[in-house]
Amino acid sequence: FGARAMEASAHVNSLAARARILRALPGQLTPAKLADPASSLAAIRALDAFCLTAADAIDAHDAASRADRDAIEDGSEALDRFVAHVERACEPRGGGDLASRAAAATLLGRCARDCAPRRFVTSLARWGERLQGLVKPDKTADATVAAVAAARAMSEILRRAGAMMDVPGVRKEAATVVQRALPSILAWLDDEGSGRDAAAAALEFIEAALVGHPAALRPRADALERSLVRAAYSRGVFDTAVYSRGVFD
């Protein structure tokens, strides 16, 4: 017990600083600042993996003192508020334009990649739903940027879920994310005017689904095959996206 208490105490000292960062970020991540590439990049860089996991990974009963328990609870509450802020920023009612929603989608993908397993499992379905509206085909430049960010964030969700398929509920929720997003993903892939970034993001999503959730793709297997063949022959996108990593070898 003594060793665990010392370890927890060492972590909470760092956690207190992370909690302050998390509490400050929502005030800095207004729609206007999210739409500014420099501001949103600074926020993304401020979030290291420990910042997103520590509050959930340390149990209060492992704390060495009341002060440590308070720091743990403070960090967890700060993380709750930060994640809720990012979720709202992904939605139209969050008050931001497509550029700010794209940055929020990137932040949500970071949360999905690095948060503690318990938070991921309880948030998977909600995060997938938040990102769905951003991947709908739209040829405007801002919509393309938002769709690319959302597709990549969903790819993070699918990769994380693929490593947790033995956890009850994860398989079903991940399949729902795949099946609801796939029509839009294929539309981006089929549209030769959508640009290489959109095509590469679509292929990244398909890769994550093929590797971790192949059963979810079966209902649209024929459409998926046609889109991939068309992309391979008409757009040449495989050399920079999925094919270069050997997924289809």
Automatic annotation (TrEMBL):
<protein>
    <recommendedName>
        <fullName>Pre-rRNA-processing protein RIX1 N-terminal domain-containing protein</fullName>
    </recommendedName>
</protein>
<dbReference type="GO" id="GO:0006364">
    <property type="term" value="P:rRNA processing"/>
</dbReference>
<dbReference type="GO" id="GO:0005634">
    <property type="term" value="C:nucleus"/>
</dbReference>
<dbReference type="InterPro" id="IPR012583">
    <property type="entry name" value="RIX1_N"/>
</dbReference>
<feature type="domain" description="Pre-rRNA-processing protein RIX1 N-terminal">
    <location>
        <begin position="97"/>
        <end position="230"/>
    </location>
</feature>
<dbReference type="Pfam" id="PF08167">
    <property type="entry name" value="RIX1"/>
</dbReference>
<keyword id="KW-0539">Nucleus</keyword>
<comment type="similarity">
    <text>Belongs to the RIX1/PELP1 family.</text>
</comment>
